[in-house]
Amino acid sequence: MTPMDRRRFFKITAITGTTAALASCGNPENQIVRFIPDEELTPGVAVWKPSVCPLCAAGCGVTARVMDGDAEVFRSGQPGVTRMGLVRKLEGDPEHPLSKGRLCVRGQAAVQVTYHPDRLVAPQRRSGDRGSGQFTEITWDEALSVLVERLDATAAAPAQLAVLSRPRRGRRHELVAEFLRRFGAPAPVSFEIFDDAVLRRANDLSFGRHQLPTFDLARTSYLLNFGADLLGTWNSPLAHSVAYGAMRQGRGGSRPKFVQVEPRMSQTGASADEWLAVRPGTEGALALGLAHVVMKAGLRPADGGGRAGAQIEGWSGGLPAFTPEAVEKETGVSAERIERLAREFASYGPAVAVIGGAPLAQTNGLAQALAVNALNALVGSVGVEGGVSFMPQGPVPAAPARTLREALAAAPPQVLLLDDANPVFAAPAAWKVRDWLRQVPFIASFGSFIDETSALADLILPDHSFLESWVESAPESGAATAVATVAGPAMRPLYDTRSMPDVLLDAGRRLKTPLAPALPWQTFEEMLQAPAAEPAPVAAAPARSTAAAAPTAWRAPELDGSAGEYPFQFMPYPSQALFDGSLAHLPWLQELPDPLTTAMWSSWVELNVRTAETLGIADGDVVEVASAHGSLRAPVVISPGIGPDAAAMPVGQGHETFTRYASGRGANPLAILAPVAEPSTGQLAWAATRVKITRISGADGSLILFAGATRERPDHTRGRG
Amino acid sequence: MNRTRNNPLADDLIRPLLHTSVWFYGAVLVLATIVLCGAAAWAYQVWYGIGVAGINWPVFWGFYLTNFVFWIGISHAGTLISAILRLVNARWRRPVTRCAEVITVFALMIGATFPIIHLGKPWLFFWLAPYPSAREIWPNFRSPLVWDFFAINTYLTGSLLFLILPMIPDFAVIRDRSSGLRRRIYGTLALGWQGTTTQWHRLEAAMQIMAVAIIPVAVSVHTIVSFDFSMAHVPMWHSTIFGPYFVAGAIFSGIAALIIAMAALRRTLRLHAYLHPLHFDNLAKLLLLMSLLWGYFVFSERLTVWYGNQPSEMAVFWATQRGEYASLYWTMVFCNFIIPVGILSFRRLRTLPGIVLVSCGVLVGMWLERFLIIVPGLANKPLSYSWGTYSPQPTEIVIMVATFAAMALLYMLFSKVVPIISIWEMKVGNQPHPALPADEEEEQQGLWRARP
Amino acid sequence: MAHRWGMVVDLDKCTGCEACVTACHAENNIPTAGATEAGRGRAMHWLRVERYWEGDFPDVKVKFKPVMCQHCDNAPCEAVCPTYASHQTDEGLNAQVYNRCIGTRYCANACSYNVRFFNFFNPQWEKPLQLQLNPDVSVREVGVMEKCTFCVQRIKSGKSAAKADGRELKDGDIQPACVQSCPAGAIIFGDLNDHESRAARLTHSPRGTKLLEDEGTEPKVTYLQRQSWNEPDTQ
Ligand SMILES: Nc1nc2c(c(=O)[nH]1)N[C@H]1C(S)=C(S)[C@@H](COP(=O)(O)OP(=O)(O)OC[C@H]3O[C@@H](n4cnc5c(=O)[nH]c(N)nc54)[C@H](O)[C@@H]3O)O[C@H]1N2
Ligand SMILES: Nc1nc2c(c(=O)[nH]1)N[C@H]1C(S)=C(S)[C@@H](COP(=O)(O)OP(=O)(O)OC[C@H]3O[C@@H](n4cnc5c(=O)[nH]c(N)nc54)[C@H](O)[C@@H]3O)O[C@H]1N2
Ligand code: SF4
Ligand code: SF4
Ligand code: SF4
Ligand code: SF4
Ligand code: SF4
After folding, report:
1. A15 pLDDT band (50/70/90 cuts)?
2. What are the pLDDT digits (tens) for A617-650?
């Protein structure tokens, strides 16, 4: 575990030094105040400090290169310039078991969160109408007294306090949960559009582990992946990519095979040796078809499926309904191919099957996941080298949480605290999150930026950036051994910001009726230090386990909208750079060419070549994509990597308000999704909406491509090479 | 006949220097405004960065370099034609030479500014020059841009000399016919010309030497300009015929420019007596010849590329033949080949308006040719991922238009200070000086008899 | 013996993730053009991951190819540069001297790989994004050409660190930013004159090819072609 620096980074010795009235004398705003630095840095000499990438749930360890420099800061209500240690670059932490010295594209860009020009530098109080985005800067004393006043007012009905955040593991979430428990409020609400709740539930049923799986890609000989963008955005993409590199070359012996099954070629699919287009939502049927062949050919006995097999209806009888011919009809994959893949998968071990992302975001997501789990169990890939396993969980349990849907179904609370969640953007418009939020009398946000959700807040209590605070991660997957990371601040805060856990602790202390019992820590740092000193024994038991339930029957996905009126299955996917849209404010990521379309700063809809031809749509033409729940406009990228009945669109753009780089750019596919859910978890089935496509106009210049002549004059015959 | 006094020839040719119409002032005002707009556009570009132009990744050269090659091409009209005509002692050259030489000098000056305008850091243009700097860093003599520097400067120097030398006797004529400040100025310019036999001999010798020397320089200039392209491994730039192809194109566009300039002068300065249809007819025949030669080069260049069938070259080939540049390409072929051959091959159609029309077309076509050499190749380099396009931006267009205005302006101003037709050469044509070799009898009879 | 820096890109490992692209931006202070300028072809990516489609749906394949300056032995960009701003160093780097560049853009035309990028305007970092700048690398001004340097600043500091420790430079001591960040470990950098270095050995791999080999530019970047299933691993 990372050794901790005992120095008190938080105590900013913000003592005003010389006040140098510079060139524009007389104008007090232009006075530059130099803060006396409290750090000893050798000018020009870099030091490396550990930190944790906060940009996705993977929780990779990073190192920050810190060098001295002059920064314009805002502290104690005053702007000034100070020479201080500044993070210049983030790199993978060589000692970290997930990043192994490497860093994904988003992790590289994470430094721009700290230096973002639109970052809030001090607490804000709403000054305009709700949602107008007008705020006035206030001091922390004022801000805290507003917050405490509101909490005190709710103390009589503590159930009226709610916290909305992202599903993450770690002490920060534990602290929030603990605060709510002692306050008497319900568990935190958590929301992330691309959360894998369905897979956790499936793993719980199949293997007794309510947890995301870890794949030993480095040692597998046959990787069969059903739709997971595991090298781009899914689960623990950086750790997957590191292992994938090891799998591809340098192991000795013969080169493994990688088969990708998905309806739209993802960045991950692009690297596959064999790419299979299936009908969206039928991946599980294909998995069962493979299992059928394996059992029928006697390559493995049916009872090899064990508990995972027992979850599938008809398994013990050899899945008679899933003959290659039947599966061909369902999935569109030829029977011979199914036959061949099944034999390969069973013969070239260690083999591993993966499912993730869109196949789980169907109404039949659970059945799909169970099918793939059973396939893994059948070929003996669970808990073995080169197979699938579950990372032993450290001392940090997953904090209990309510889903946003549950919260939305209930009456709005009196006080809502927002932490790192933007459901107004990331939930379907049909959920009417904005309307719900408007009914909440008081909303406070801990965000560093004004986004669609925090624009509705009454109070903003900006958190430090991750580089300025104590950070930790407790990944649930990505390595064979338990991993927990804690790191101190890599630099002092630039602005009048405060760490969110500390604000909660402080507010807790200031309450009229103190929390009972009081939270045991004075600061978040103290909390992190306490148990981290002695690594708790690795929990062997699953975090939350349910007894094996009755077997689940395979069923076809149900899509929202009739095939007649809405002929295309709409497939939003996490953008490799902007993920779920929460990274759309980082200019490096905006200007990163999308790996498959090379688009930058844009939204687009991917359509099959022949589909576009039939509809009379040329590359770059603007179309309207309409579901039964809304519509949007975006330019088309004609792609050979998508089926004729599908339309795919990256998530990330379409922000109404989210800094200068993201606001008013492109369209948000999440907004038009149908509010259908996977029934067992209530998780949004974000791949289950049908849409229709209408050409609106020729290219409008909004599609910016890096590659080829399509940049200015769309012509899809070029730039293909 | 007393040829020193009461000389209608000199009167006619000096008249434009002495009398200026309102129209002239108006035209100067308009042209000067356009030129100033160009200067302002350039200032804007220097201030904000070359990015205000349309060039991009990967089409790093666009309108500016097109205009550079175009104007350097135009410059070939003058000195080269005049030198050749002098050497072969073509009878009809006398009224034409100076108009032509002036085009060369101004076109070169304009052309040479484009490489500076197009620089990312134009204020450092002198780093192209070999000069003894404190750091003892010389330019890279392997770079065709440095060759350009030498070639263009040599040609400019030579052309200036070639232009100025035969102006000396005319300056003396003006000196002798004027008084006051004008007399002082022209007296200085005349460099003490007295018209002595020795002076005539020296002038003629100098002209002979210059005429012989300037031809290889002129040929080399456009060959070297072609090296800017053929030395870079860009598809359809990397061609062995670029040297002669560029020279042919240059002479072609140069003659067209000369025809247009002569027609304009004939009309505005009422020089019908000196710029006879026969001159135009002869130039038109030359233009026809160059059109055929140009057509041959284009055809053979395309043929070898097509036959070679190298993928990256074929990408450019098809982009121009039937892709996004096809309309420009076929306009070029139409202007440079179909029209000239169609009109100039027939004596009946080879009228003055017809010839001028063809010449205008050739200028358009040759400008397009330069553009089509530069842009499609850069837009379609071997890695198709990095293909691109180019569309000019207002700054580039304004600067380009301003250079055409600058040419017209300079020409007009020049015709106000120097007789645009060499007085003494015309006189020699009429009545040879005893010190000079007389032109053949037929010249006087054949040519001057035809005077209206 | 003098160093001769070279690179190997294993296309079998590359996942097209572009971590290298952003790493290069972060390391080398490459400006962000912004949407408008990017739309006009002014985005700068010293390293780009080219994507080529092969075949038609559903039998379609993608090839990713990270392309940076190939540091050609026979570099066409060098011959044409009038000011020696583009020139070859003793260690085989195609160096770009920003202070010498006057912005003719000739080198960019001559480069067959289109890996040279031009500062059409003065670069801008909206405050306080300038704090992310790497102090080891200069910021280029308007009118200047720039491109991948093989992270020459890292080569320099690697050499001086070895010297300070009084030891020889080892293979792997120097890692350009893209090499260091690449999750899949697809890029290998090293001294081609050190025959034991990984880069030198892989340069001679049977899978090794050069980009646009027939142009005669003699690149120092070798691309290892993708393999098929069950072929013997060649790394
Ligand atoms: N105010 C102030 N004055 C200082 C200093 C300071 O920090 N502040 N520092 C001092 C120090 S340490 C130094 S070394 C000096 C440096 O002072 P100078 O030697 O004046 O250095 P620069 O201003 O960097 O560059 C000189 C010029 O060389 C040009 N140049 C670049 N390459 C070439 C080339 O190949 N040929 C030619 N001919 N010109 C070229 C540049 O465009 C620039 O105009 O300044 C000293 N003076
Ligand atoms: N971008 C860019 N970089 C350059 C140059 C350039 O023109 N442009 N020029 C280059 C050249 S030629 C040079 S010489 C270098 C100069 O580079 P440096 O040597 O870094 O020069 P300075 O930044 O002027 O001074 C360094 C520090 O010394 C401190 N100092 C001043 N007086 C004293 C003193 O008495 N004692 C101590 N201990 N410190 C003191 C100053 O406050 C400052 O923080 O920069 C080089 N780098
Ligand atoms: S995978 Fe990338 S974005 Fe996610 S935590 Fe790791 S470095 Fe950050
Ligand atoms: S790749 Fe291009 S820029 Fe790099 S050395 Fe070769 S020619 Fe020059
Ligand atoms: S742009 Fe700069 S580096 Fe390139 S050729 Fe011109 S002066 Fe040389
Ligand atoms: S070697 Fe350095 S400069 Fe070159 S592409 Fe890699 S990171 Fe960029
Ligand atoms: S970081 Fe590595 S794997 Fe990713 S695109 Fe670059 S070279 Fe390929």
Report:
1. very low
2. 999 999 999 999 999 999 999 999 999 999 999 9
Domain assignment present for residue C152? The answer is yes
Nearest to B145 among C40, C82, C113 (CB): C82
Distance (Å, whole) CA A227 – CA A26: 63
For each of the domains in chain B, give its residue range(s) and CATH number, in order of start: 2-129+138-449 (1.20.1630.10)
Ordered DSSP codes for B50-119? GGGSS--SS----HHHHHHHHHHHHTTTHHHHHHHHHHTT-GGGTTTHHHHHHHHHHHHHHHHHHHHHT-
Q: Give the whole-angstrom CA distance, residue A658 versus residue A193.
A: 18
The pLDDT of residue A480: 87
Q: Label the pairing between strands A388-389 and A568-574.
A: unpaired
Question: What ipTM did this prediction achieve?
Answer: 0.86
Half-sphere exposure of C11 (CA within 13 A, CB side): 26
Domains annotated on chain A, with CATH? 6-114 (3.30.200), 139-188+401-463+498-529 (3.40.50.740), 197-389 (3.40.228.10), 568-717 (2.40.40.20)
Whether residues C102 and B125 touch (CB distance < 8 A) is answered with yes
CA distance A279 to A267: 19
On average, the pLDDT of chain A sits at 88
Residues 541-600 of A with CB under 8 A from B: 598
Distance CA(A215)–CA(A201), nearest Å, equals: 18
The domain total for chain C is 1
CB-CB contact of A642 with A586 (8 Å): no
- Name the residue with tokens 């489609």: C53
In the beta sheet, which residues pair with residue A61? A52
Structural domain contains residue C21:
yes
Long-range pairs for B128-137 at CB < 8 Å and ≥24 separation? B128/C82, B128/C83, B128/C102, B137/C83, B137/C84, B137/C100
The pLDDT of A299-314, averaged and rounded, is 91
State how far Cα B337 lies from the chain centre.
Answer: 20
Residues 6 or more apart whose Cβ sits within 8 Å of residue B270: none
Report chain B residues whose CB lies below 8 A from the CB of C117: 57
Q: Are C14 and C184 a contacting pair, CB within 8 Å?
A: yes
For C45-101, give the DSSP string.
Answer: -SSEEEEEEES-TTS-EEEEEEE-----TT-HHHHH-TTSSEEE-TTS-EEE-GGG-
Q: Which residue of B has its CA nearest to A596?
A: B385
B144 to chain C, any CB pair closer than 8 A? The answer is: yes
- Answer whether the bond into residue C128 is a cis peptide, omega within 30°: yes
Q: pLDDT tens across A579-599, in order?
A: 999 999 999 999 999 999 999
Element (H, E) at B247: helix B242-268
Residue C232 in domain: no
Give me ligand 7 centre to Cα A241, in Å. Answer: 9
| A contact chains, 3+ CB pairs < 8 A | B, C
Give mean pLDDT, residues A179-184. 93
What CATH number does residue C190 fall under? 3.30.70.20
Nearest to A147 by CA among A176, A177, A123: A123
DSSP-derived letter for residue A163 is E
CA distance B292 to A5: 83
CA dihedral (A309, A314, A316, A319) positive or negative: negative
Residue C117 host element (H or E):
strand C117-118
Q: What is the DSSP string of B351-379?
A: -HHHHHHHHHHHHHHHHHHHHHHHHHHHH
Per-residue tokens: B135: 């750091």
> Please, are residues A86 and A67 in contact by the beta-carbon 8 Å criterion?
yes
Question: Model confidence at A26, in pLDDT bands (50, 70, 90)?
Answer: very low
B201 CB neighbour count, 10 Å cutoff: 12
Q: What would the two tokens of residue A326 be?
A: 């039947």
φ, ψ for residue A552, nearest 5 deg: -100, 140
